[in-house]
Amino acid sequence: MAKEYSSYQKKVIRNYYENLDTIQLTKLQEIVTELYLAETDKKRKQLWTRVEKALTKLKISAPIKACILETQDIKILAQNLQQWLR
Questions:
Q1: What is the spatial distance between Cα 86 and Cα 80, in angstroms, rounded to a whole number?
Q2: How much is the pTM?
Q3: Sign (positive/negative) of CA torsion 53, 78, 75, 34?
Q4: Left if phi > 0, otherwise alpha if psi is -120 to 50, otherwise beta: which for 72?
Q5: By C-alpha distance, which of 54, 53, 55, 48 is closest to 73?
């Protein structure tokens, strides 16, 4: 049974998908901030898992993604994020 959406709902859904990259970059910025402030290894591990998911949704190339995730260096992530925001 297919659900019919109102024209307003369709517009909201369309706008969400049109701005998905911006939304993911914003989430990634928030995660970088949380990583700088994380106090426990458990929290850092959870945040790096979120980074991996965000990079996948952004369709970042495999070599860049692998480099970021292997080193788990916040500075490298932040520098790349800064470039992607331009």
A1: 10
A2: 0.83
A3: negative
A4: left
A5: 48
pLDDT, tens digit (0-9, with 9 covering 90-100), for 30-73: 999 999 999 999 999 999 999 999 999 999 999 999 999 999 99
Task: Take residue 46 and report the two structure tokens written for it.
Answer: 């959870």
User: Measured on CA atoms in the order 9, 10, 14, 15, is the torsion positive or negative?
Assistant: negative
Neighbours of 65 (CB within 10 A): 17
For the segment 3-21, the average pLDDT, to the nearest whole number, is 94
pLDDT for residue 1 is more than 70: no
- Residue 61 confidence (pLDDT): 93
Tell me phi and psi for residue 19, to 5 degrees. Answer: -105, 15
> What's the N-to-C CA distance of the chain in angstroms?
43
Tell me if 29 sits within 8 A of 80, measured CB to CB. Answer: no
Residues near 12 by beta carbon (within 8 Å), at least 6 away in sequence:
none
